[in-house]
Amino acid sequence: MDVNILKRLAKMLRMKLILAFKYKVKSAGKGFYVGRRVHIRKECLEAQDYVFIGSKCRIASRTKLGNFVMLASGVSLVGGDHRMDRRGVPMIFSGRGVNRPIIVEDDVWVGHGTVIMHGVTIGEGAIVAAGSIVTHNVNPYTIVGGNPAKEIRRRFSSEVEKEEHRAKLKTYREDRKLWFHPYEIE
Fold this sequence. Notes:
This protein is of the alpha/beta class. Helices cover 19% and strands 24% of the residues. The protein has a single domain, classed as Hexapeptide repeat proteins (UDP N-Acetylglucosamine Acyltransferase, domain 1, 3 Solenoid), CATH 2.160.10. Strand 16 and strand 17 form a beta hairpin.
C-alpha cells in the first residue's frame, strides 16, 4: 500500500478519535483538523468546514470558527478574566466575569502565537499577523497586527476583487471536487 495513503488514513483516524474521545466539541464540519498538544475546553468549540487548528493552540472561551479558518500553532483564544472590582476579596477568590464568545468568520488566517480575547469578532477574509494581541473586533478583509492589533492594510485593493474572491469561495463550498484538503475526514 502507498505510504501517502497510509499517512492520510492515520490522520483521518486520529481526527475521528480526537473528536469522539479527547475534545467534546459542540460541532465540527468536514475537513476539521487539530494539531498535537492542543487544549480545547469541553463544549466550547463550534467549527464549520475545513478548519485547521495548529499544534499547541489553546481554546479556553466559547468559540465559533467559520469555513476555511486557519489557526497557526500557538494561537490562544482566551475567556473572561478574573474579576478585580470586588473590594476586600483577593482576586484569586473573586470569580470570573462574563465570558463572551469569540467569533471567527469564514476564510480567516490567524498567525502563530496570536492571542484573541473573548468578545472579539474577526471578520470574513481577515488576516491576523503572528504575535498579535486582538482585543477589539477586526473588520472583514483587513490585515491586522501588533499589540494591541491594529489595521495594517486591506487584503484586497477594490470591492470588485473582494466580490470575485467571495464568489470563488462559494464555488468551493458548492462543488467539493474543485478543492482538496489533505486532512479531510469524511
